[in-house]
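User: Can you fold this complex?
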Amino acid sequence: MPSKILVALDGSECGKRALAAAVEHAKLTNSDLLLTYIIDWTPYSFHTPQELEERHQRRESEIQRANDMILNPEMVALESSGISAESVVRHGRIAETLQELTDEYKITQIYMGRRGESRMHALIFGSVTAALVQSSSVPVTVVP
Amino acid sequence: MKHLFYVLGIFAISISNAVAGIDDAINDATAPIATMIGKIVFFKIPVFGAQLPVVVLWLVVGAVFFTFYMGFINIRGFKHAIQLVRGDYADPDSHGEVSHFQALATAVSGTVGIGNIGGVAVAVTVGGPGATFWLILAGFLGMSTKFVECTLGVKYRQEFGDGHVSGGPMYYLRKGFSDRGMEGFGKFMGTFYAIGIFVGALGIGNMFQSNQAYVQLNNVSGGALDGFGWLVGLILAAVVFSVIIGGIKSIARVTEKIVPFMAVFYCLFAIIVILMNASTIPQAISNIFSGAFTGEGVAGGALGAMIIGFQRAVFSNEAGIGSASIAHSAVKTNEPITEGIVSLLEPFIDTIVICTITALVIGTAQVAASDFAGDAQGVAMTSAAFEREFSWFPIPLAFAALLFAFSTMISWSYYGLKGWTYLFGESERGQTIYKVIFCVFVALGCVVQLGPILDISDALVFLICVPNILGLYFLAPIVKREMNSYFARIESGEIKKFK
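Assistant: Here's the predicted assembly.
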């Protein structure tokens, strides 16, 4: 079975380093890549009717932006490397959604950057990286 | 900047008029109008000595019909509604769109308003404890009406080129009738409803709310605001103005986030108060049941209690009015039925849970001390019932009432605006005119007495439900067909769970 590596990009330098490491890994093991960008979103939030009305438009533009700014430039850069790669943008809670994608795309390995969360932030909101490392069903490589 | 001048202008005029008795003057001027409108819409039929308003009959017959016609969807669909809200059937590919939970939460915060706190007290005062029984029954039946209107709202919504969506009765009346080959009639009904909702928004979702918020504020300040209704009204109007015209969305967003917690907080304390009066619970419940069928000491007997209960329930959960269907129609789903099923929970939360809790707080207090509230009416009566146990409670209650009123006003300004733009198009200038009118009525609400306000609000609300329910009868077969097909596909496994 061909192995497939998921790279979680977040627009940061850390994410780029995670991608670089994943590319090396993919070359060595002849794996495919799945580049992802997760837009933090929860179905359990409260909105005004006005916000609901505009939600569909905003979602489209969020996806568009993520593709244009983050995923597409990397995809173009990967073209010459000979690695087969696809990309996906999805809304959701980050750790949870990465797990969903892992199941959906039969991912064998995850690469992600350490998302410079402060200790206070992690204490209050929980750390995405820690949450993923704890819940993931496949090996996770965290790149500093 | 221009808007600021409007506000300053209104302020300047008001201050120059700020002589003693300004509240009375406005009240005297509006009361006869309210009575007149009330008389027309509340044409009453005398039945066995009680007065039955035609519109109440209209709504109840509708709710009973939909409950039977849809095969008790309010019971059958309940479990599935919770699964949908939990996201069990949510396709990950549509994450980021409006979720069932979000649509429900928005619609609920539009309906959970002063009616849940003050309206129930009105029902109990006028209709006796027995009114509570009919209120709950009306909530239960109303679930079916909501189901039909919210399904139609999603099915016939309008998607605009830029991706934003608008829906609601004006759209389903127009398109639905057109589907059934009655294009001209559909256009007429859509227009009728749109007029109803934009005028009606000024009553239930506006004057009644600001009035009761002021009453409670005045109440906790020990009457210090007596005669200053116009001032509180102006301040409230200015805040609403800043949100809906000034575009200060953050205020609305914050309210939208606090209201659900306030509702939980309110219910929690209400339950504590009820439990503190535990010994009186059996008597309070028995009063509700006996009053429902004997109606002792109530004008019109049991039937009087029933009418009042039904009337206040509709006022609170808005089933049959079609307003919630406007909020629900933003959901992105291939199955309009799912939104209808989710909306079942709305009258459940609003009427069967929150209103019942309020009724029990008042009911247990009445058993313990029958004249606990003195002359207090509406929200002040509920407040007095809480005050017996927690002397400080009226203050957070005033805050909660203010927030409930505010979020309801924001939601209704949106509903009314949708009616307005349906009629007059999306022009900015037209929308601003409507919003200014809306703010003026917020201020008026604090000045006029509760009685006339209830008359106007009720009258306007029921005016909206005439075209809506008539449309629902015609379109119900479409909903039924979709409902049967949906449940068949759930059964066969064609519609899969994602969780």
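The longest strand of chain B covers residues 44-47. Chain B has one domain: 20-492.
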